[in-house]
Amino acid sequence: GSTANNSASYTNIKVGTMDTMTESTYTSSSKLSVDKDHVLFARWKADTYTVSYNANGGSGVPSNQTTTRTTYCTSTSAATTTGNTTISSTKPTKTGYTFSKWNTSSDGSGTNYSSGTSYNIASSITLYAIYTIHSYTVNVVAQNGTVDTASKSITYGSNGTFTISPSTGYG
Fold it and tell me: What is the arithmetic mean of pLDDT over 141-169?
């Protein structure tokens, strides 16, 4: 008989004939011997991905999550993808900071993900905790004196400098 080239390049697919229910694996270089009518059915193996969490200098990171993503077609519909993953609602902590969001880059320049929100994850990813640094207001009351700035906002871990001069007769 003649041969037909299965020109699609897929991973995780096995194709079998319905009448024999035998399975053969075909790749982009496989040839199928055609000496009678065949109906081929794709059998998809679900892809499994991992969402890993990195506390990025903090603590209390959630456990990794495994998600299964399946794409399939039916005789009446186009490709459909299933397998959404809800990002953990566990928020890590870091002294002097408030957890803000998850991001695919440790410096926050990647894609943002929100805790408790569902996403269609299409590959294994590591999400890094992104934090907002705390800011504190320091007010100085220079009794019987003067101060260069009576109030300053100082971020956690940094120093603030005030110049206080006593009034005449104090020192």
Answer: 85
Q: Which residues contact 33 (CB under 8 A, 6 or more apart)?
A: 1, 3
Beta bridge partners of 51: 65, 125
Decide: residue 132, CB within 10 A, 0-12 exposed, 13-18 middle, 19+ buried: exposed
Joined together, the tokens standing for residue 54 give: 């990195």
> Which residues are within 8 A (CB) of 3 and not within 5 positions of it... i.e. 6 or more apart?
31, 32, 33, 34
Q: pTM of the predicted model, to two decimals?
A: 0.65
- What per-residue confidence (pLDDT) applies to 2? 36
102 contacts: CB under 8 Å, gap ≥ 6: 53, 87, 112, 113, 114, 115, 127, 128, 129, 130
- Structure confidence by residue, pLDDT tens digits, 111-143: 999 999 998 887 899 999 999 999 999 888 888
Q: Is 101 helix (H, G, I), strand (E, B) or coil?
A: strand
C-alpha closest to that of 125 among 78, 56, 66: 66
More confident residue, 4 or 30: 30
Neighbours of 134 (CB within 10 A): 14
